[in-house]
Design brief:
single chain; 191 residues; alpha/beta; five-stranded parallel sheet
């Protein structure tokens, strides 16, 4: 099973996060992140909730609970010891250095991010590639489309939205909102 570092911008959108982590639950890949990614996720998740009218204390509590649930579900996902490598890659945006450091220390071959252009290949170790969430989703569901489809079924069943979203609705949103059209097509074909 391969490992991938998931950037904050990939984990912040709820449905995208649920989808990618559901694929990991089905052992299609191993997710990795750093304490810096989780800290940033907690901050942005709280801001998102406040923007939706949730009080700051409740938003902070909810964001903290999200990170706690992620760390409990994937207790080996948080890479430690990456800090000495932070700042050693000469990336255009120094704030992205921790992603590469976590990938190297965690043994990940992939960094999944929306900021692909901020991680130029000529600045990365040869064994680390950078990919968008849509491309990563396609590559991952193609490993075992039936198991990936089962992950979506389970995800749709446990998401407590009102109204509940069907598998078809989830796949449509993944395609329309997150650009995962190709992955959604593979999943539809796996029924």
């Amino acid at each position: 099973m391969f490992s991938a570092v998931l950037d904050t911008c990939v984990l912040w959108p709820s449905l995208q996060r649920d989808f990618l982590l559901s694929l990991a639950v089905e052992n299609l890949y191993r997710p990795l992140w750093s304490s810096a990614i989780l800290k940033e996720l907690e901050m942005h998740e709280a801001r998102k909730l406040v923007g939706r009218g949730v009080s700051m204390p409740d938003a902070d509590r909810s964001a903290r609970r999200l990170v706690e649930q992620m760390t409990a579900a994937f207790d080996d996902a948080c890479v430690s010891g990456w800090e000495p490598l932070d700042g050693t890659y000469g990336l255009p945006d120094r704030d992205d250095e921790h992603l590469v450091a976590a990938a190297v220390v965690g043994g990940a071959g992939t960094i999944v991010t929306m900021n692909v252009r901020d991680l130029p290949a000529d600045r990365l170790p040869a064994h680390v590639q950078v990919t968008s969430p849509a491309d990563f989703a396609l590559e991952t569901v193609e490993i075992d489309p039936e198991r990936a489809f089962e992950a979506v079924v389970k995800m749709a069943e446990r998401r407590w939205r009102d109204p509940v979203q069907s598998v078809d609705q989830v796949l449509m949103i993944l395609g329309d909102r997150y650009g995962m059209v190709a992955a959604a097509a593979v999943l539809k074909g796996a029924r």
